[in-house]
Amino acid sequence: MAVxxxxxxxxxxSPMASNLLKxxxxxxxxxxxxxxxxxxxxxxxxxxxxxxxxxxxxxxxxTMLPNGDLVRSVLFGEQGVCETLSREALVIDMSxxxxxxxxxxxxxxxxxxxxMMDVPVGRTSDNAIYRHLVAAGRRYVRxxxxxxxxxxxxx
Length: 155
Hints:
Blueprint: E1 3-7, H1 13-22, E2 26-30, H2 34-41, E3 46-47, H3 51-55, E4 60-63, H4 68-76, E5 90-93, H5 99-111, E6 115-118, H6 125-129, H7 138-143
Parallel strand pairs: 1-2, 1-4, 2-3, 4-5, 5-6
């Protein structure tokens, strides 16, 4: 299974991270709310004291944050993701941010030699609990192949 850093354990992020744990993935989690972190630790996640620590050894880094300024800070700020991110890792941003911010973040990550993709989610936290947010797995990927590919940031 994958080694994943999950950053942002709010109403959407917490159930998403929990579902990844249930599927057997190894998670390192970070959030500014220690109670949110502890709930995931109780389910088997490893706690991290910073985004940089969460990212050590991760194949994937998932951010689920409420705005673009927080995503930028988590990626590029002090003790941010880029301090420890492997060049082979993929950052997956699922945050609620403006498409132009997404474009700029992806360009800035690419300029530093990192890979990042925009994977917006639709629906509610209840849908996150029941795993009804994104298409995943071979069957769903085949069924959902884009007919009209969109550039990053276009949702």
